[in-house]
Amino acid sequence: MSSGLAAGAAARSGVPQGHHVHGLLALGAEVLEGYFPGLRAEPEQAGAPVWDWGEGLCAVLPEGTPAPMPMGMPIQTFSRPLLEHVLRGRVTGLEAVTLRDGPAVTGLLTAGPGRVTGVRVKGSDGEDEIVADLVVDAWGRSSHLPQWLGSLGLPSRKTAYHRLPRWPHGLIALGDSVCTFSPAYGQGMTIAAPEGRLLEQMLRSRRNGTPLDGQGFQKGLARLTAFSWLMATIPDRAWKRPGPAWPVKAGNWFMDRLIDTVPHDPRTYTAFSQLFHMTAGPLALADTPALPRPHRPPPGREHSVDQGLTSPWVPARHRPRPPAARRQQFRRSGSRCSRGAGSRGRRRASPGTAPSPPRPRGRPGG
Ligand SMILES: Cc1cc2nc3c(=O)[nH]c(=O)nc-3n(C[C@H](O)[C@H](O)[C@H](O)COP(=O)(O)OP(=O)(O)OC[C@H]3O[C@@H](n4cnc5c(N)ncnc54)[C@H](O)[C@@H]3O)c2cc1C
């Protein structure tokens, strides 16, 4: 599964999404930089520029385009194999780390349903067993853990592991294996970084080498991801039929209002960006005009509450198209970034899609 590690910054079969450009949001970059100081500099030298979200992003929103402004939010986009290559170099440089490239994990070793003691692996030289104090399922979206837990008699519907009444010792799961965010918002790697930090903190806080509380970890992970998951999935829930529940309608109404305020109010733009980058919680919106006050949706926008159609998170192909004249004007402007051009239709730009970096400013190879 992990074949091709020796090949340097090349795509691997175990990570099919590796062919897509990846962006690392502010929190993810901050956490990784904390563990590996100077990490950003390595891909930068290889041609992946670091740029400021506020200055470099051009967000075309229905009510306009926010004016560029410095936000102190450094962003980096790169090919996924490049990031993996740089990270792998740092991790394998650690004395305690040994890398086994090639064998795929085919199952868990257990001592009854309550204890995981290692993994079974299969590689080109046959099958083997690896005994471990702790097994971490970081197998991404192709994880087989639900089936393996099922065979231990631990029913595992979906991956709401934190709700299972029992959880085996010696096992935890994180990353896409537990919680797979929509790739459209570019949050997956960023949310995985604080999950790794949670693991580190829990391992450090154990007394006298006592086993890790795996169930406690899964509950902590669920708390860590809850708000971002809610933000990312509320628009999708609007498609539920016979009709979304009122909290979903309210959530989408608020999102619409928030997005419409962003182009006109720098504080809201900053707060929204911090929320999106997970460097701040919902309190960042306090004292911004986006917070609900007695308000009615503007005429013609009422349907957005019922259908979520104007939500920024709804895929473009599902959104109502702007009138033909406006589309023409949009095309004539010849720019996807010119302020206000074609921006007042019902088009919603997903601010989360892995952003393109701005034109390099004199950096070699950018
Ligand atoms: C099209 C697309 C674009 C995306 N763009 C972005 C983006 O711009 N920014 C962002 O933050 N996120 C993005 N994501 C999401 C991001 O790729 C994932 O959220 C992130 O990689 C999850 O990390 P992970 O470690 O959990 O899993 P992965 O990165 O998928 O890693 C899983 C690893 O487990 C190995 N593996 C799997 N099964 C086995 C096994 N049985 N035995 C041994 N090894 C195994 C694989 O080889 C791989 O190395 C995107 C996703 C997609 C699909």
Give structural notes.
The chain contains 11 helices and 8 strands. Helices cover 33% and strands 11% of the residues. It folds into 3 domains: 5-92, no CATH class; 104-225, FAD/NAD(P)-binding domain, CATH 3.50.50; 235-332, no CATH class. The strands form 3 sheets. Strands 1-3-2 form a 3-stranded antiparallel β-sheet. Strands 4-5-6 form a 3-stranded antiparallel β-sheet, with no helix packed on it. Strands 7-8 form a two-stranded parallel ribbon. The model is unreliable at 299-366 (pLDDT under 50). The protein is globular. The protein has 366 residues and is an alpha+beta fold.
Main attributes of the structure:
366 residues; 8 strands; single chain; 3 domains; globular; binds flavin-adenine dinucleotide; 33% helix; FAD/NAD(P)-binding domain; alpha+beta
The low-confidence parts are 299-366
CATH superfamily of the largest domain: FAD/NAD(P)-binding domain
H/E element string?
EHHEHEHEEEEHEHHHHHH
Strand order of the largest sheet: 1-3-2
CATH class category of the largest domain: Alpha Beta
Straight-line distance between termini: 32 Å
At CATH's second level, what is the architecture of the largest domain? 3-Layer(bba) Sandwich
User: Radius of gyration over alpha carbons?
Assistant: 23 Å
Quantity of strands, as a count: 8
Strand content: 5-15%
Bound molecules: flavin-adenine dinucleotide
Net shape: globular
Largest sheet: 3 strands, antiparallel
Annotation field: number of helices: 11
**Which bin fits the share of residues in helices?**
25-40%
User: Kindly state the mean pLDDT as a whole number?
Assistant: 80
CATH topology of the largest domain: FAD/NAD(P)-binding domain
Q: Would you tell me the structural class of the helices and strands? A: alpha+beta
